[in-house]
Automatic annotation (TrEMBL):
Organism for this UniProt entry: Amycolatopsis rhizosphaerae
GO cellular component: cytoplasm
GO molecular function per UniProt: 2-isopropylmalate synthase activity; acetyl-CoA C-acetyltransferase activity; magnesium ion binding
All residue ranges annotated as the Pyruvate carboxyltransferase domain in the record: 31-304
Positions contributing to Mg(2+) binding: D40, H243, H245, N279
Official protein name in the record: 2-isopropylmalate synthase
CDD domains, per database record: DRE_TIM_LeuA
Pathway involvement of the protein, from the record: Amino-acid biosynthesis; L-leucine biosynthesis; L-leucine from 3-methyl-2-oxobutanoate: step 1/4
Length: 566
């Protein structure tokens, strides 16, 4: 790899701090969130959003509770301009939602931007940007430091002239590529802008400091933000904002450390769409706060609806492993994780019952699940899925949640071997219904045409000492026997032994069947008997279903008999 072609961040920009406070700080409250999906996210789409998509996305953000939304770059396209006009002319944006519009420092484009917001009933932020880093000055804009400073201040003056008198308008400035700009230079420009725009605590100016292209470890960005936080003039009249991108895959970390370093506001995209590897993912940021016990002040309780809308509007599918939101992130396939999750859920339910606190309100400590999937509208069903990496814990969980069956531990171990063989052979996942079907095939050993032992019937005989009469056919011959037994199951066990079939019943467990994709055990069966038996030196398991516990027990004995006579 020709790594020698690249320079580390320290040789590209002065990193200003040698001592810093941010490592000792904690995140204790949500920042001001500003989704920029309709501007920065939109400009990164191969097919930018049409008006219907923009509107749908905007309405989603409003429903989620975002109070400041960057809605577009009105001087760049008619769609963006028209969308801002739509907001100005309808009640689409609730009155407490601030509308942000974005513009470069060019008078013609600023004029068009200001035109777009005329009559807007909502608070508005006009967001001016210009790149300030040396490479952009030299290569892109062809301006030296002073010339560029002049362009930015001219842009600021134009905005003041055209929109300064509008009482609902505030101003934002972004020195694009802040993270590669000389700290003293960018500080001077930012101070000049707050002076020009007469920033006050009542009408604060937003200074937004982007990591336009992420180039350093997050601690470097945090140092840069803390430097600005400490040295900016009129600090109480500035809202310090960050706008990380994700080129190194650490956009979220950059935003979190920047908040520790003094930032108050974060611009990003829900699920992190945006140029190249994306803007910082403000869904992950918010849910990270939630997972630390901090109210994110945005509603993610219907994550599936949020995913559907974002995917529709961006035409980009969400990765299955996307933090919090991906289809698989609350799913465990691996055996030991499933075991821990199942035990965790059981403990959670028990604690809820004992304490009288609702499960949805109780402290969360289920292993391997950072948050309760139910908080974001996901059900428990998807949490555990079974494939060849799974163990008995997952299998047991699915049968428990799907059919209400609790397998005894030795049967769990036995059935897990059959499931393993099945998943190894097919190479696929097995659903809850698939597990139940495999269970039936393995242990219920249904009646077949080649049956050579059948239970014809049984009855309790009266008299002083009641007994149970059993009628079987064995190899085509009917035989009836009477047994003094505690119950018909024991009597049937004795009858088959007398018929020369050495099946010894070691123990049995009766269960009731419920739910499941196919409603019950099949044919209206509501009872299940799980039976452990011994034949010779070999022990095994069999099961029977029925409309009552005795019927299920008798069927279980007959399953055991069939399992011993292939
Ligand atoms: C990091 C970011 O996300 S920044 C936002 C980027 N977003 C977009 O570019 C999407 C919308 N943009 C557009 O539709 C177009 O670029 C427009 C309408 C704004 C301008 O279009 P054009 O006039 O054709 O210019 P073009 O797209 O080629 O932009 C380059 C010009 O803008 C200048 N420029 C770039 N940024 C800025 C700025 N912030 N302020 C002033 N001028 C700028 C460049 O120096 C260059 O000028 P030159 O033609 O004299 O060399
Ligand atoms: C100009 C700012 C806000 C930006 O979009 C970026 O730097 O990525």
């Amino acid at each position: 790899m020709p790594s020698h072609r690249y320079r580390d961040v320290y040789s590209r920009v002065q990193v200003p701090l040698t001592d810093r406070d941010w490592p000792g700080k904690r995140l204790t409250h949500a920042p001001l969130w500003v989704p920029v999906d309709l501007r920065d996210g939109n400009q990164a789409l191969a097919e930018p959003m049409d008006p219907e998509r923009k509107r749908r996305f905007f309405e989603l953000m409003v429903r989620m509770g975002y109070k400041e939304i960057e809605v577009g770059y009105p001087s760049a396209s008619q769609t963006d301009y028209d969308f801002v006009r739509l907001l100005a002319g309808t009640g689409l944006a609730p009155e407490d939602v601030t509308i942000v519009v974005f513009t470069p420092a060019r008078r013609d484009l600023i004029e068009r931007t200001v035109d777009s917001i005329r009559g807007m009933p909502n608070p508005v932020v006009i967001h001016l940007y210009t790149a300030t880093a040396p490479t952009w000055r030299d290569v892109v804009l062809g301006k030296d430091r002073d010339e560029l400073r002049q362009i930015i201040l001219d842009g600021g003056r134009d905005i003041l002239e055209l929109a300064g008198a509008l009482p609902n308008v505030r101003f934002e400035f972004s020195p694009e590529v802040f993270n590669l700009t000389e700290p003293g230079y960018v500080l001077d420009i930012c101070d000049s802008m707050t002076e020009l725009w007469l920033a006050t605590p009542e009408r604060p100016v937003i200074l937004n400091l982007p990591a336009t292209v992420e180039v350093a470890t997050p601690n470097v960005y945090a140092d840069q933000i803390e430097y600005m936080h400490r040295h900016l003039d009129r600090r109480d009249s500035v809202i310090l904002s960050v706008h990380p991108h994700n080129d190194r895959g650490t956009g979220v970390a950059c935003a979190e450390l920047a908040l520790l370093a003094g930032a108050q506001r974060v611009e990003g995209c829900i699920f992190g769409n945006g140029e190249r590897t994306g803007n910082v993912d403000i869904a992950t940021l918010a849910l990270n706060l939630h997972a630390q016990g901090v109210d994110p002040m945005v509603d993610f309780s219907d994550i599936d609806e949020i995913c559907r809308t974002v995917e529709y509007c961006t035409r980009i599918p969400l990765h299955e492993r996307h933090p919090y939101a991906g289809d698989l992130v609350h799913t465990a396939f691996s055996g030991t994780h499933q075991d821990a999750i199942r035990k965790g859920f059981a403990e959670h339910r028990r604690r809820a019952e004992e304490s009288g606190v609702a499960e949805s309100e109780l402290d969360w400590r289920v292993p391997y699940l950072p948050i309760d999937p139910a908080d974001i509208g996901r059900t428990y069903d998807a949490v555990i899925r079974v494939n060849s990496q799974s163990g008995k814990g997952g299998i047991v969980h699915l049968l428990e949640t799907g059919y209400g069956i609790t397998l005894p531990r030795r049967l769990q171990i036995d059935f897990a071997r059959h499931v393993q063989h099945h998943t190894d052979t097919t190479g696929t996942e097995v659903t809850t219904a698939g597990l139940w079907s495999l269970f039936r095939r393995t242990y219920l050993t249904e009646r077949s045409t080649v049956d050579n032992v059948r239970l014809v019937g049984w009855e309790t005989t009266g008299g002083d000492t009641p007994a149970i009469r059993i009628t079987l056919t064995v190899d085509g011959h009917e035989r009836t026997s009477t047994h003094r037994a505690a119950d018909p199951i024991e009597a049937l066990g004795a009858a088959v032994n007398e018929a020369g079939i050495p099946v010894e019943i070691l123990g049995l467990v009766q269960q009731s069947l419920r739910g499941g994709d196919d409603g019950d055990g099949g044919d209206g069966e509501r009872a299940l008997c799980l039976l452990e038996y011994r034949t010779g030196t070999v022990t095994g398991w069999a099961a029977g279903c029925g409309d009552s516990a005795p019927a299920a027990g008798m069927n279980a004995v007959m399953s055991a008999v069939r399992r011993t006579r292939p």
